[in-house]
From TrEMBL:
It comes from the Bacteria. It comes from Nocardiopsis flavescens. InterPro entries: SCP_3. This is Bacterial SCP orthologue domain-containing protein. Residues 53-144 form the Bacterial SCP orthologue domain.
């Protein structure tokens, strides 16, 4: 199955990061670029939601594409209105109407789930995510990237 995280989408992500003045390691690859964009979009949205909208939109679309690549299938539709939706997770294929499983979240919630700022269970429990169907538990697929924890300074106990 061809990747939904296309080279054109990756170029748009890299361009948006450059325009935002965000740093990204040269060896980060497509996954790292999308992670950097998601984190940058969240930070900008917290300070200036209106100006961050294009970044959030692109980060949502790219992170949904990454989810679809990592968990291919057609049994679950993940919706992040108004920016995007993908089908993912192996299982029964649907062709018309509502799929057997649906997950829906706001763009902010989706990006916080993707980067690991919000745990899946807490988002569902608080009603920030609506999930229905037998394959709608995305806890095994989120966060998309490990949470970045700064290294402890010498002599610091964790």
């Amino acid at each position: 199955m061809p990747s939904t995280l296309t080279p054109a989408l990756v170029r748009r992500v890299l361009s948006a990061l450059a325009d935002a003045g965000a740093d990204i390691p040269a060896d980060a690859g497509a996954d790292g670029a999308v992670a950097a964009l998601a984190r940058t979009a969240l930070a900008r949205a917290d300070s200036d939601p209106g100006a961050a909208r294009p970044l959030v939109k692109l980060a949502v679309r790219a992170s949904l594409a990454l989810l679809a690549d990592r968990a291919p299938g057609n049994s679950l539709e993940v919706r992040v209105p108004p920016f995007g939706a993908v089908q993912a997770i192996e299982g029964p294929r649907h062709t018309r109407g509502t799929p057997p499983g649906v997950v829906e979240a706001s763009p902010d919630t989706w990006l916080r789930l993707a980067v690991g700022e919000t745990p899946w269970g807490r988002a569902v429990e608080q009603g920030a995510v609506q999930a229905s169907g037998t394959r709608s538990d995305l806890s095994g697929h989120l966060p998309l990237w490990p949470r970045v924890v700064p290294p402890a300074s010498p002599g610091t106990k964790l």
